[in-house]
Amino acid sequence: MPSTTRPPPPLTPSSKIPPTPPDSKHLPRLLCLHGGGVNASIFAAQSRSLIRHLQHSFRLVWADGPFFCDPHSDIIHVYGSYAPFRRWLRWLPEHAEIDAESAVEEIGYAIRSAMEGDEREGGRGEWVGILGFSQGAKVAGSLLLEQQAREELARRNGTKDIGVGPIGIPGLNWRFAVLLAGRAPLSNLNPDVLKSEALVSAADISEGFQFVKEVDAQAVLRKPTVHVHGMADPGLHLHRRLLHEYCEVGSTRLVEWEGAHRIPIKSVDVEPVVVATYDVAEEVGVRVLRTA
């Protein structure tokens, strides 16, 4: 069973948060992936309460999805002027068809562009984790699974060289992911290595995906993940499916909160997410400054 955290009673504002953000150039880096129908700027604005904590332990790098789309209906009233709106994957029939190879290439290029842009801005810390919301969480988990598959292939072949994944940057080692409202199934970001029928092609619409009876071992993510579930989220059954069927028992932490399909804002909801993130980061050898 996953480790589960339910929100504690309301607390007074945390006094553990330093008054000023640090110089983040040498902090370990978190890649941040937005949901569908928004963009990196909106995701950063929505994540402001998380940023208040995490910016003291990580350099947060916000990537824009490669494909343009209409704004998500949930954000248009507040963020309607933040165009253009983007997506990582198709989720509606009107989204332009694309072959799997091109889809993976575009996703990788978009992420690589954000990472290289951060290098130009002075970021020097190790890339250690990925934080994603909704569709961005699906991509985050899928990137970890893709790396895991290359690592396992290298072990079978008796080599330490795991090759280069879809992002195209050698030496990346994603240690963990924070999946906010992440849905099953995971996407196949390396069809040459991953052959599981439990994964959806990057070319396909995952809505209406015909789940297999049993997720095979190749599609099970064993790298550490934090799962954040809103109890009023209409996609909760798919979030739970990702947690229970696509992630190995013992590798996960679950944070549940009384919210819908959005990113927690209030301290009572945010702090359990932050604590779980710190716990997982420390488990994989990343030093953090605990602000909650």
CATH superfamily: Alpha/Beta hydrolase fold, catalytic domain
Rounded to an integer in angstroms, the radius of gyration calculated over CA atoms is 18 Å
Structural class: alpha/beta
Question: How is the biggest beta sheet arranged?
Answer: 7 strands, parallel
Strand order of the largest sheet: 1-11-10-7-6-2-3
- CATH architecture verdict: 3-Layer(aba) Sandwich
Number of strands: 11
Helix fraction bin: 25-40%
Averaged pLDDT: 95
The CA-CA distance between the termini, in Å, is 24 Å
**Number of separate domains:** 1
What form results from the Cα inertia axes? globular
Uncertain spans, ≥5 residues at pLDDT below 50?
Answer: 9-14
Q: Which fold does the CATH topology refer to?
A: Rossmann fold
Please, what is the oligomeric state?
single chain
Number of helices: 7
Along the chain, the helix and strand elements come as EEHHEEHEHEHEEEEHEH
Strand content: 15-25%
Give the C-level CATH assignment.
Alpha Beta
Give an overview of the whole structure:
- About 2% of the residues have low confidence.
- The longest helix has 22 residues.
- Helix content is 30%, strand content 16%.
- The chain is built from seven helices and eleven strands.
- Helix 6 links the parallel strand 10 and strand 11.
- It has one domain: Alpha/Beta hydrolase fold, catalytic domain (Rossmann fold).
- Helix 2 crosses helix 7.
- The two termini are 24 Å apart.
- With 292 residues, it is α/β, with parallel strands linked by helices.
- The chain has a seven-stranded parallel β-sheet, sandwiched between helices.
